[in-house]
Structures are given as C-alpha cells and as structure tokens.
Write a structure and sequence with these properties.
5-stranded parallel sheet; Rossmann fold; 200 residues; alpha/beta; 9 helices; two-stranded antiparallel sheet
Amino acid sequence: MTVVIGLTGSIGMGKTLVTAQFAALGAKTCNADDIVHGLLAQGGAAVAEVGAQFPGVVKDGAVDRQALGKIVFADGEKRKLLEGIIHPKVIAAEEAFVARAKAEGVKFVVLDIPLLFETGGDKRFDKTVVVSAPHFIQRKRVLRREGMTEEKFARILASQMPDKEKRQRADFVVQTGFGRGYSLWQVRRIVGLVCHPERM
C-alpha cells in the first residue's frame, strides 16, 4: 500500500528542505510549483490557454511569469481565472504521479502543494504535513529573496491561510526554525508513524 502525503506551508517556511528530507528517507516526491513551471514553459500544456486569456504574456512560446504575475497579483478576479486554467492541470499531473508511484509499489509519496488547504486539496491525501517556523524567521528568509519587498510579502501572506490555522488542520507539523537536525528528526518520526507504525 502506498501512503500519499500532502505537504504544505506558507511562504518561507522551509517546504523545499522538508520535502528533500522526506526524499532522503525514501519518499518519491512531487512539487506543484515545478508542475506549474512546466505548464507555462515553452511547449507547456497551459501556454495557449493562458495566452488567450491574458494577451501579451506569451513570449517565444512560453508564458512570461513576471508579466503574468503583475496582472493577477493585483486583480483577484484575474487570479481566479488563472487558477481555473492551472489547477485542474496540476491536479491531473499529481494524480498521474501518484498512480505511477502506486504501480511501482512505492511505500510513500509526498506532494509539495503551497495552497493545499486553500484549494480543498487536503481531501485527496492520506495524511497532511504543515511546515512551519516562527514569524521572525519566516520574514527574514522571505525578505532575502531577490525582488521581495515588505509590501509584496504582506500581499502574499494575505492570500494564504494563516499559519496557525494550517497547523490546526494538519495531521503533522514540522518546525524548521531550530536547525536541520531537528526538522529531520521530526520527518523521521512522521515516516515511522505513517509507514512503519509497527516499529513505533
């Protein structure tokens, strides 16, 4: 039996690190952002549809993500329009990934999905994991990113479910603000509880 885990967390919480730690412990992993990149890249399955709905954002056969971001970030209706195009394709790709993993007899898979609870996607998983960190650490990490500002950070947080609510809804929480060793210990514990309960 393959255990399917949905992993999420707000911006700057350490999802990439924790996903890599699950992979190091044997998980087959899938990243929703990577799927989106592929959909919007040259030859991607969403390029034509996005180009039709958002004229001018396609350049050299690929969607200019910065140009698209400027449009949808400031307009909630346009963001919903984009999500209506992208989300079904992402879900289809994720389901295909899980189906392949099950066919291969993989013990457990982890799907990194930024807006897991916001989109109701948690219902698709056996277990959910939220990656979290204290706000001051989150803020420090995010503001180190190129092109990030306090205003942009605030807008991103406003578009995401509060960290506290995510933690309350999750089956497991991994704290990343106290060093990699501590987060790895937490990941090992989750793997043990989910995949090898007989050993715990």
